[in-house]
Amino acid sequence: MGNTSHSRSLGRSRFSVFITILSIFSAVVLLISAAVTLTNYVQTKSAAVDLASDTFSAAIRRISEQQEALFSTLIFFSEIYSQDPDVLAGKGAMENVLPAVLRGLEMNPHVFQIYTGYENGDYYQIFSFGNDDDEMIADMGGPPGTRFAIHEITLNDDGLREVFWRYLDRNQIDLKRTSATASNYDPRIRGWYKSARARPDGIVRTPPYVFAVSPEVGITFARAFDGPIKGTIGTDITLDRLSIFLQSMRPNENHRLLVFDDEMRLLGSTDPDQVLKRSGSGDDLELAPALVTELNDPVIQQTLQVFARSGPFDLETVSIDGEVYLATVARNIPTEGAADYILYAAPRSEFEGSLAGAATRSLLPGLLVLLLATPAIVYLARLISRPLTGLSHESELIRSFNLNDSINMSSPVREIDALITSMSHMKNTLRETSKFVPKSLVKDILESEGRVEVGGKKLHVSVLFTEVEGFSDISESTTAEDLMVHMSEYFDELVSLIIKDDGTVDKFVGESIFAYWNAPLPIDQYQRAACMSALSCRHASERLNTQWLLEGRTPWKTRFGIHAGDVVVGNVGSSDRTDYTVIGDTVNIGSRLEGLNKFYGTRILASGQIVDVCRDEFLFRRIDRSLPKGAGKPLDIYELLGMHNGPEEYRVSSEQKKLVEDWAKTYAVYASRDWAEALDAMEEFLGKYPHDGVAKIYLERIAEFLIEPPASNWDGIMRFKKK
User: Fold this and answer.
1) For the chain, is the Cβ count within 10 Å smaller at the N or the C terminus?
2) How would you classify the pairing of strands 266-269 and 256-261?
3) CB atoms within 10 A of CB 104
4) Burial level of 311, CB count in 10 A (0-12/13-18/19+)?
């Protein structure tokens, strides 16, 4: 009886094997499906936020670069004007610099006009028109085909203000000139002139205003200059042009992108009709900038509420009628007495796709497919998850500013494929933008995930210095325009080769380049990379010289200095402005090595620290043991001639190898300090190589030692008192 009751109890508390296995398997399937769904959801949210942040940052950088271009253009034209004394004297003699100014305007199509006002009331203005400005040209009295217009106001002998117009085609040939007419325009009472004169040490931006000559509303960037007659140079950008530029960056109408100033005046918007307030009509039409607070857009207004509470912010969410938007407000490049802000907002769903909903809807069918065909489910899961994992990895690469490789993946899921396409386009855009940005520095800032602190760390690096021989004479005998073209070609060739060899270009000093290897990113064989880069730059310089000679231009002879040692790498400067660079005795020695080329008549000088590592791959010729000015200890100096093997253009010849062998024997006699024998050996060497400049230096040195031998304790070091 008891056994029967126990058996029934067991029967009531247990399930069949089939039900148990089915339940366990179903529970496992549910847990796995839920975990996969949750993981995909979280990854999608994270990737969407990262993608939105990168998209916003890229757009803001492009807008800032547009303003930086105006700054650079203004400084460029200021430098052109400052080179002509008649221009500074306010004599209206702009013909001297007019070709350079017109060429500069052609190279900077974003500049609408450049103008100069003087303390005596004279005014000189140059307009640069585009293909879509025919109506504006006609309104200003210009004939068809006008590319430039020159507007000049001066005082005549009777003390009256007269205005002259001159219209030129794209070949700078006069199309029309107007006779003198009276004018009451005085630049000295204009806001841009007064603001710049009040802040002579910087670039100022005016509030939006109606231009005097053309019926446009815009802002002016101005910079004061001093000469025999004080004055101000300015350049404009219309609010319409800024709005068109913003509109070109907006993927679709769901994205809000606008610029406003600290007075909440709207400077630019993806909807150009919002920018200006119009009142009246016809001749009574009045234009004024709109206020951003007046825009009838709840997304913008909620974003402005966040801005009003906390100032500029990186990324926040705002919700409008159940739709979540990601938004940011960033401070634009500041100018004297003004501040601009950039607002960007877009639906979060555009960065997510509908992945979360798709995962939820596919849960039950997924269970059935998994029960019927587990291998097929595994394959499909991988097919879906692999692109998401790849996108997450790509997001990290973009965050690290690693933009070298394209995104080569696809997905049969439409939303995932759209996300892949969007991220691929963004990565390609960032790759093109990085051509104008110090890539390694930006990468370091992005990876720091915070504020850039002043400070550094000790690293062993190789450094390279370049300089063009006789550049001062070249610059004095070359026009500013031709010199700019020369330097652009020169830097484009050499810098691209240094970057190709994993080098970091630190700075340009005139025509000189300073670069280093093994920072901020570590690389193998950084001493070899410096040697290889010097050889490739030398070859590129020679190729350019051949081309320039055929074009009737002056060739440039480049000298190089290579050294390796410990430096401090990091951010140097103040809390407001920092510069990522390397400092230390190694940098000074590299610079001195480049300068010693002038004394020895060589092209590439390397230190013993480089030669000790690279002698098996490259051919070096021992030059001297020297103590350059400012160096703490002496160093062995070698001339880099080329490679033993490798590309043909860098490979040394048998004649060069023979020269190095003969020189080593001759130098050994010199090192023995038997000056009579050394004189015979050096004369014999020069008999074979009569044009060798280094041997001539040694011959002169030995002759001096024969007359007055060095002290018995002479250490063989040549000490230099000049750089």
Assistant:
1) N
2) antiparallel
3) 21
4) exposed
Q: What is the mean pLDDT of the chain?
A: 79
* Segment 19-39 mean pLDDT: 53
How far apart CA 316 and CA 329 sit, in angstroms, is 9
- The one-character DSSP state at 291 is B
pLDDT of res. 43: 58
**Helical segments of 501-649, H only:** 526-550, 585-600, 608-614
Indicate the pairing of strand 618-627 with strand 718-719: parallel
Helix axes 17-82, 374-399, angle to 10 degrees: 20
708 touches 714 (CB < 8 A)? no
CA atoms within 13 A on the CB side of 243: 19
pLDDT, tens digit (0-9, with 9 covering 90-100), for 252-297: 888 888 888 888 888 888 887 777 777 666 556 667 778 888 888 8
Residues facing 174 on adjacent strands: 168
Lookup: tokens for 68 = 């930086």
Strand partners, 340: 261
In this prediction the pTM is 0.44
Q: Is the peptide bond preceding residue 520 cis, with omega within 30 degrees of 0? A: yes
Helices (H) and strands (E) in the chain, counts: 22, 26
Helix (H, G, I), strand (E, B) or coil at 236: strand
Tokens of 222: 């101005």
* pLDDT per position as a tens digit, 547-569: 999 988 889 999 999 999 999 98
Distance CA 429, CA 447 (A): 20
Report which residue type is found at 257.
L
CA dihedral 489, 490, 492, 498 (to 10 degrees): 170
Which residue has tokens 């990522």? 580
- 6 CB contacts (<8 Å, ≥6 apart)? none
Mean pLDDT across the stretch 23-37? 54
- From 546, 530, 432, select the one nearest 489 (Cα to Cα): 546
- Neighbouring CB atoms inside 10 A of 716's CB total 12
Per-residue pLDDT tens over the stretch 640-694: 999 999 899 999 999 999 999 999 999 999 999 999 999 999 999 999 999 999 9
Whole-angstrom CA distances from 97 to 77, 197, 230, 481 are 10, 23, 18, 10
Q: Looking at beta carbons, which pairs linking 301-307 to residues 24 or more positions away fall under 8 Å?
A: 302/327, 303/256, 303/327, 303/329, 303/343, 303/345, 304/329, 304/343, 307/341, 307/343
**Dihedral angle of Cα 477, 481, 485, 490, to the nearest 10 degrees:** 40
Residue predicted with more confidence, 380 or 666: 666
Neighbours of 138 (CB within 10 A): 12
